[in-house]
Amino acid sequence: MRKNKGNTQNPEKDGAAGSTDRPAPAKLKGLPVFILVLTVIPSVSFCLGAGAIFLYRLYETLPMHTQLQNIEQSVVSKVLDKDGKPIHEFSVERRFWVSLDKIPVGLQTAVIATEDRKFYSHWGIDVMRNISAVFVNLARGKKAQGASTITQQLARNLYLSSDKTFIRKIREVLTAVQLERSYTKREIMELYLNQVYLGAGVYGMQAAAEHYYSKNVGELTLNECAVLAGTIQLPEHHRPDKPDNVDRTTARRNSVLKAMTVAKFIGADAFKAVIDEPVVANPKIYRPPVAPYFMEMVRKYISDKYGDELLYNGGLVIHTTLDPAAQDSTERSAARAVASLQKRLNRMFLDGSGADRQLGISRQTYLDNFDSVYTKNAADYATLHDTLKYRKAQIAVVALESSTGAILTLIGGRDFQESKFNRATQAKRQPGSLFKPFVYTAAMDNGLNPATVILDQPITLVTPEGEWRPENYDRKFLGPMSIRDALAKSNNLVAIQVFTRVGGQTVVDYAAQMGIKQKLNPVPSLAIGSCEVIPMEIISAYSAFPNRGIRAEPYFINKITDKNGRILEKAAVREHQVISPQTAFLMTSMLGSVVCCGTAASIPGLGFRRPAGGKTGTTNEYSDAWFVGFTPQITTGVWTGVDERRSMGHGVTGSAAAVPVWVDAMKELHKNLPRQEFSRPMGTKGLMICSQSFGFAKSSCPKQKVEYFKYETMVDSCNVHGIARGLRSGDEMDIFGPSRRGAASGGAGGGANTGGSGGGGNSGGSQPAKKPSFMF
Question: Which of 30, 181, 237, 371 is the most buried (most CB within 10 A)?
Answer without folding.
Answer: 237
